[in-house]
Amino acid sequence: MSAAPLGLRARLADRGLGTSYNLCVPQSLGHVYVHTVFATKNREPLILRPEPAQLHAYLVRVLAELGCPSLATGGIEDHVHILHALGRTHSVAWVMEKLKSNSSRWMKQHGAGDFWWQSGYAAFSVGRAELERVTRYIHGQRQHHSTQSFEQEIRVLCGGDPADTTALAEFLNHEPR
């Protein structure tokens, strides 16, 4: 057990919490899964060169290095879907910033020229019971988009929940900077 600073230990004792209150945070365990979606700038079909599979493999490696292993990664020429664990000390925003900046740089280094991601992203929590279904969904992107647009897809993923109407509109109507 780590010793608490004397002043803090005294304040805890004054509040009836005793002097043996353990201030150490034990190892944490988290099983948080996130389905993230992000698009190319202006949703242009820029994921052509290198092959999309190479980009997806790179995204998997970056996520592993961040401590957020991918369970499924896929997409088509203008956007990517990833199902990944969220490291217990990371925010979705931090992971997306690292993933998108590194992969944008990688795409440019591997022949994609003037490649950029849209500045935003969509993130959806996924329960353990849904992991297999979401994995199948991500791996079926090519077939899925033969009948449904990106906008329709995002609206379905949001489940028609009006709670984030403004955020959804901003994501779908993103204007480049």
Distance between the termini: 51 Å
Query: What is the CATH homology-level superfamily of the largest domain?
Result: Transposase IS200-like
**What's the CATH topology name of the largest domain?**
Alpha-Beta Plaits
- Annotation field: number of helices: 7
Widest sheet: strand order? 2-3-1-4
Biggest sheet statistics: 4 strands, antiparallel
Beta fraction? 5-15%
- The stretches of 5 or more residues where confidence is low (pLDDT under 50) are none
Order of helices and strands: HEHEEHEHHHH
- What is the radius of gyration computed over CA atoms, rounded to a whole number of angstroms? 21 Å
Walkthrough of the structure:
The structure is a single chain. The chain has 177 residues and is of the alpha+beta class. The chain has two domains: 1-29, no CATH class; 33-172, Alpha-Beta Plaits, CATH 3.30.70.1290. It is 41% helix and 15% strand. α2 (52-65) runs antiparallel to α3 (92-112). 19% of the residues are buried.
